[in-house]
Design goal:
- Chains A, B: It catalyses: tRNA(Pro) + L-proline + ATP = L-prolyl-tRNA(Pro) + AMP + diphosphate.
- Chains A, B: It is an enzyme of class 6 (ligase).
- Chains A, B: This is proline--tRNA ligase.
- The structure is a homodimer.
- The first copy, chain A, contains 23 helices and 31 strands.
- By secondary structure, the first copy, chain A, is α+β, with helices and mostly antiparallel strands.
- In chain A, strands 11-15-16-22-19-18-17-30-31-29-28 form an eleven-stranded mixed sheet, with helices on both faces.
- In chain A, a hairpin with a 4-residue loop joins strand 18 and strand 19 (439-450).
- The longest helix of chain A is centred in the last third of the chain and has 27 residues, at 600-626.
- Mean pLDDT of chain A is 88; it is low at 173-178, 193-219 and 669-675.
- Chains A and B meet through strand 10, helix 11, strand 11, strand 12 and strand 13 of A and strand 10, helix 11, strand 11, strand 12 and strand 13 of B.
Chain lengths: 718, 718
């Protein structure tokens, strides 16, 4: 490949190299490369004054004989110690990494290993390999020398640009992007390895030690929340064992650590809706195409994402069958059948199920996945008043799920006409906020469908009022849904650079007890004391776990449980036993408290309650501070760019909303997965009392100058 | 159509008419028809000595203007009063039935209405109409005169044969069969209408009365359990509000009345497996074709039933994606990734989800459906002993679900090699029994997969034993599942001709309180007393409902709740209030007991317990009586034909099992949905102590004469 081709490829990705140079052929030896670069005329503007070399290593993981190998290509700063292949193994799931043979490299990449670099990769090759990029390079503004896919030319690029180039190669058609392109923090891995030396035992078995080190590598979140939010997010989910990637793109495995949270939400919400007279049911996941297409507005919103079953076994189906993206059209033909008289009202059904929306945008666990779990409630009433009341009752439950269970602040409000549910009358929402990106997020919605669907599906009864005998009354309907997205929002709001931070009410383990400072003589008594405290706490209704694994050191366990977000760590050592005490360490703020063992049954539940409340209060303060009242247009974009949500008096005209979206686009691109699109209306808060009253005819919409109606939140959003 | 064509059509369905006759053209007037038939020479062997006339009516239901009408064709004995069209409306879901115009009949059936009859229908027409057959005809051995799809010829057939002919027209391609072909008990409908006259009120509103009568029609189960079991079964499910049919064939709607039972099972079982250390998770419903096909034996078992998604929105997928028929191949690649060391054992995950098996056999709610709900547990252990132990622990829980929750007796045992799970090592089962058909039914299975999948997916660790350093150990795996089939088995075992009979432990309403014998002056005090008792019972932990609807009479309510299977009805009237008493009526055996109101909080829970136990005991006695010990081959088929299950000493040779199946086929055809196929081995019971010890080398297999190994249950089965 010539230097020109490489530069053209970079240009097409809008990456501007800091320089480039042709030189004599070089070997893989860094000093040879350095010499070649230094041999260039010092006046050459094409060689930056400062740069570091890069290195490119290819590994062949162990694979079944029959399977084609998936090489792992590691791109790192020449300075980085890249020996931690065990940890890479763990992160990528590729076993027994061995340096690939020259032949394999040649065969696979079509070039000699002396020419190989990040620039040897292209969109066609990328899905076939696993790429691991050194964190110290990927996040760096420093300039690096990269072989221009040739051993006779070098390109100079910032570390971020190298990573950016690789990112740009990813296409939707490739497998899960994060699967093929990893970043890896070697510094952290080395540190973790160093800090986790085993308990000193003269003839300690080396195998145990190895396992410990290997596992320890897994602990690092790798990237900082504030630096690379989307990588941080997926790393937290992977490392806390909430999810794993899955071989079908856009689908994820919910592991017990996250599924338990969903079950907590389910139990709470299920009880509440049963109190409201809602009953659970299960409707099939399939819909015939004809039925699906009955309600035009509605289906228009979903059609591009519908997955179709066209074949069963080896038989083509006569008519393709859709998988539900939501169940309005699945359920309402039966509502029409079941509701024959006014006495059949209200009909209130809910189902806990999964729905499929085959999105082609970049997936993100919990937030945008092709299959997701949710509940969908579908109710029908005789009068609008009853439907209206229920919409708000349910929204209030959604608010409580967020504020009381997940400790996540949300603002209840109504959606603009543009943003409401397709085919419905109006949509109410609880809107959340992700401080790190400054974006709003729709947390859950409760829709009043009005009579649109009931007229379409003929859900009607005879007027029970004798005076109107024979008149037909159409049902007033609602639908409302809460999905596993809630878990993602919770992680984004509370997580930190140590990993997950779980609110106590939904944590499957609320307290972990870690024995500390033990030796062979004290071990038994300390373990006993830990078990005793665990028993006491369990009796007090606390979800507790004593981590008595003797293959791990306390420091390792601290990291492990911090990463998993357990709200309280209780440390118990020989001295604590003497003093009948234990040390409680809060995950949310790191504060340590010494407790009397006699009081744990009262103090720990109280502390959990405090943590729950303080987590909410802190998040609420942040949201409040970042919800900025704006009355002049010139303040809108700077406020958004400042990672805030705008609340402003608004005219509620759809054209104005379109205009705001267009005018508020930013050139800043902070998060590849939530591009800096323009702001849209998030919600018109129900509680308008926080802001100055809007004076009809006087208060103007800052966007268009027309009369404002209500204070409305605008923000960039997920 | 000529008489010859009609007779040929009948012959091809293997129906032999009792006679046939050509005659002068007739009108729809029955007396004209009778005359024409009597005009035949009395010597004509082709006219039976006794016969009844039939009538054929066509109705046009109300449909949206745009939709093509679906005519309802009613085939009845001429004698039957067929005025109960409201009730037919209810059963078929077709609204506002009006007699169809002559033009519509001509257009639709291609014949004049004077020629129309059951014999005008053919396989092509059938799916386009809804057919309702008079029960008095469908179940009768009497001979009826049927117009031979012509007004110039008549065929004589038994009522059963007429129904048989219509059944034979059903094809798999048509919609849900039970949807297009109904039977209807006009006698019962008339009776129900007569018995449900409204509370005498001088100027009673006629609308209320109508509604009552209309609803009352719905109450009849229509057919007897012992006469037409499969119709009885679906009618019970429909009329108790457990399910409804759905527009995608083979899928059913689980309404709250059945879904609640599933939730009861879920809660109980979920708690139990959590005690065993099993954790819940959720894996995607999609599998890539490549992964699915990895385990050959396994996929061979499922491939013909796999549903494939090939399109999303308007894009064809690059590779078709399967919907899970079960999750072994979904989960195990990740087990391989997650299990890296012996310390990662045991891995015990469960999921509550739905799976899809696109069967082409006749569907039956709960028993054979294209999508069904279940739980699937997947566990991995280091040793076979641990796996073996868990297989049995789980099977024991399944046994308890059936015996303790559903009051259904089952026999725990092991499956023969032929009947075990595809790709597994061995399968354990709890086998149930449906007395009405004499068939066995696999109630739930717990499989030991051995190391087959772990070798396929490389779920392995290094041997922790230092002496074997470097050796690779493959996981020992289990998988186990319990589905909503359990609900179907419960209905089949306990239901009676009044409808459902629910075991108290899973009934969402355990006690219904019905106010009785009230008039305007006593109504308030009786309603108050009912509410008071309901409150008391609720406090005592009883799931109770006071049915205080004043639009229905007590008799109607009795029927209504009996049909829904509520275990206890409490009747409270003015006299009962005076005596501080209530009358408890058991659903399972009709026994009435008078209780002191002061004691309901203790006596009702005790009575529920008694009902639960007695329901189990009765069902157990039946199963025991019908599980017949057989040691001679000549007794096998008569025992099976006698609706019993055989238990015999068996050689456990697969060829012998094939042979038994072949030799035990019966010509009797009792249930179209479970054809009288040959017997297969149901289970080798774990408890062999009930039967004479097998003497090695002496006890012989009655089927082949080889040495018997263990007592084995053989039966026809679902």
């Amino acid at each position: 490949m010539t230097l020109e081709t490489t530069l053209a490829a970079l240009a097409s990705c809008k990456i501007e190299p800091k320089g480039s140079l042709s030189h004599e052929p070089i070997t893989t030896d860094p000093s040879a490369w350095k010499s070649a670069l230094q041999a260039a005329p010092s006046s050459a503007a094409s060689v930056p004054s400062e740069y570091k070399l890069t290195k490119t290593l290819v590994f062949k993981p162990k694979t079944a004989k029959s399977a084609a190998p998936t090489p792992l290509i590691l791109i790192a700063s020449e300075e980085t110690d890249t020996k931690a292949t065990n940890a890479i193994s763990k992160q990528t799931g590729l076993k027994e990494l061995r340096i690939a043979s020259d032949d394999l490299i040649k065969e696979f990449f079509g070039v000699d290993k002396t020419s190989l670099s990040a620039l040897s990769l292209n969109a066609e090759l990328l899905p076939k390999v696993v790429v691991v990029v050194d964190d110290a390079l990927a996040t760096s503004d420093n300039v690096f020398a990269v072989r221009a896919a040739s051993n006779e030319a070098t390109v100079f690029m910032t570390g971020k640009d190298i990573y950016g180039y690789l990112s740009s190669l990813q296409t939707d058609a490739s497998n899960d992007q994060a699967k093929v392109l990893h970043t890896f923090d070697f510094a952290n891995a080395a540190e973790a390895a160093a800090s986790s030396t085993p308990i000193a035992k003269a003839a300690a078995p080396t195998k145990k030690t190895e396992a410990r080190i290997e596992d320890a590598h897994q602990l690092a979140i790798g990237v900082k929340k504030e630096v690379d939010f989307s990588t941080w997010y997926t790393n937290v989910l992977l490392k806390s064992d909430m999810i794993d990637y899955y071989s079908v793109s856009g689908c994820y495995i919910l592991k017990p650590w996250s599924y338990t949270i969903w079950q907590e939400i389910q139990h709470w919400f299920d009880d509440k809706i049963k109190e409201l007279g809602v009953e659970n049911s299960y409707f099939p996941m399939f819909i015939s195409g004809k039925v699906l297409e009955k309600e035009k507005d509605h289906i228009e919103g979903f059609a591009p994402e519908v997955a179709w079953v066209t074949r069963a076994g080896s038989s083509e189906l006569e008519e393709p069958i859709a998988i539900r993206p939501t169940s309005e059209t699945v359920m309402y033909p039966y509502y029409a059948k079941w509701i024959q008289s006014h006495r059949d009202f209200p009909l209130k059904l809910n189902q806990w199920n999964s729905v499929v929306r085959w999105e082609f945008k970049t997936p993100q666990p919990f937030l945008r996945t092709r299959e997701f779990l949710w509940q969908e409630g579908h109710t029908a009433f005789l009068t609008k008043a009853e439907a209206d009341a229920e919409v708000r009752e349910i929204l209030e439950l959604y608010r409580q799920v967020y504020t009381d269970l997940l400790a996540v602040p949300v603002v209840p409000g109504i959606k603009s006409e543009k943003e409401k549910f397709a085919g419905g009358l109006y949509t109410t929402t609880v809107e959340g906020f992700i401080p790190t990106t400054g974006r709003g997020i729709q947390a859950a919605t409760s829709h009043c469908l009005g009579q649109n669907f009931s007229k379409m599906f003929d859900i009607s009864v005879e007027d029970p009022n004798a005076a109107n005998k024979g008149d037909k009354l159409f049902a007033w309907q609602n639908s409302w849904g809460l999905s596993t997205r809630a878990i993602g929002v919770m992680v984004m709001v509370h997580g930190d650079n140590q990993g997950l931070v779980l609110p106590p009410r939904v944590a499957s383990v609320q307290v972990v007890i870690v024995p500390c400072g033990i030796n062979e003589t004290t071990q038994e008594s300390v373990y006993d004391a830990c078990s005793e405290v665990a028993k006491t706490l369990k009796k007090a209704g606390v979800r507790v776990k004593a981590d008595l694994r003797d293959t791990y050191l306390p420091g390792w366990k601290f990291n492990y449980w911090e990463q998993k977000g357990v709200p309280i760590r209780l440390e118990i050592g020989p001295k604590d036993i003497q003093k009948k005490q234990a040390v409680a360490v809060r995950r949310d703020n790191g504060v340590k408290t010494t407790l009397s063992v006699d009081d744990v049954a009262t103090q720990i539940p109280a502390l959990l309650e405090t943590i729950q409340n303080e987590m909410y209060t802190r998040a609420k303060e942040t949201f409040d501070q970042r919800l900025i009242q704006v009355t002049k247009w010139e303040d809108v974009v700077p406020t958004l760019d400042n990672k805030c949500v705008v609340v402003m008096p608004w005219c509620e005209v759809e054209a104005c909303e379109d205009d705001i979206k267009e005018r508020s686009k930013s050139t800043e691109q902070t998060d590849e997965r939530a591009p800096s699109a323009g702001a849209k209306s998030l919600a018109i808060p129900f509680d308008q009392s926080k802001w100055e009253p809007i004076v009809p005819g006087k208060t103007k919409c800052p966007a268009c100058g027309m009369d404002a109606k209500r204070w409305t939140m605008f923000g960039r959003s997920y």
